[in-house]
Amino acid sequence: MNLTLASRFSRRFGLSTPIALAPMAQASGGALAAVCAQAGALGLVGGGYGELDWTQREYALAEKDAGHTGRIGCGFIVWKLDEDASALDWVLERRPRAVFLSFGDPRPYARRIAAAGAELMVQVQRMEQVPMALEAGASVLIAQGSEAGGHGMNALNGRATMAFVPELADRLAQHSPDTLLLAAGGIADGRTLAAARVLGADGAVMGSRLWATRESLAPSGAKAQAVEVDGDATARSSVFDILRRKNWPQPYDFRAIRNTLHRQWEGRLAELRAAPGQGRADYDAGVKAGDFSRAHATVGEATGLICDLPGAADLIARISSQAAQILER
Ligand SMILES: Cc1cc2nc3c(=O)[nH]c(=O)nc-3n(C[C@H](O)[C@H](O)[C@H](O)COP(=O)(O)O)c2cc1C
Hints:
Blueprint: H1 8-13, E1 19-21, H2 30-38, E2 43-46, H3 52-66, E3 72-77, H4 78-81, H5 86-93, E4 98-102, H6 107-115, E5 119-124, H7 130-135, E6 140-144, E7 150-153, H8 161-175, E8 180-184, H9 190-198, E9 203-206, H10 208-211, H11 220-228, E10 234-237, H12 239-243, E11 252-257, H13 260-265, H14 269-274, H15 277-289, H16 312-328
Parallel strand pairs: 1-9, 2-3, 3-4, 4-5, 5-6, 6-8, 8-9
Antiparallel strand pairs: 7-11, 10-11
Helix pairs in contact: 2-3, 3-5, 9-16
């Protein structure tokens, strides 16, 4: 097989490496997105829950430093857009390179995204979501495996990156060959990026690994905890969504470090839902004190591959050169 790191994705988006920064809510701010874009990747600001002030501030920052690269876009959580899409509409006026949508039906937003000249990227967790994403006209699909940090499919419904990516690559090759595919979930070094290419993806969306960088807006105590633990340390559940008063719909839940407060509630979800007062008080106190035995650190299984907190540009260069070497061999 003659496979290079350069791909249809890097060529179409004018990238020097086929990496997209995951649009991580509260972590992928303007500084991180700008550094990723300047380093040759796609810099997606984490518009997340669609908070207008936050999105305006961080997107403007990314645009100021890296708008000239043409590699800045923004991501949103779709079921929140269904409540209020003003942040999306504001971003579309800035003519982003791409809009990345996850966790809901992208079709109601497709026409205005296309009208703004942006590429539509849709993250899916199961094969059954693919027809809807293609109907929306997505030019890039992202196959998110359940190793991923943050939100994704719960244990009953989730797919692992290793089998999901090649299955979706085959489906697209047969039914929609011009649609690009990125892998997400567990991609955090040269080996895993090269593996994504071998599995048939045109590149990768990297969350956890770029979360653990100098420029990410994640709290420094959370980043330090991610460096310390190994990959056994995370778990998926609804515990932190309940504690954080986030009203996530089924079948999504959340992967983060399984800290002391998580362990206290993980076997008693119904009880926590029915009477969340004490758990929320403990959680809020943990956030206030910067105590990550109670506050959450949002990172995926890739935390086991995270041993440092470098600048994002150095990290992207390091991962890309390792992956290129592996693929050349
Ligand atoms: C801190 C954090 C926040 C995230 N927030 C979002 C989000 O707001 N919207 C979204 O589509 N995905 C979000 N994700 C998931 C990413 O899009 C991506 O699927 C995931 O990070 C890939 O797996 P990895 O963490 O192993 O790299 C988040 C992930 C992390 C780690």
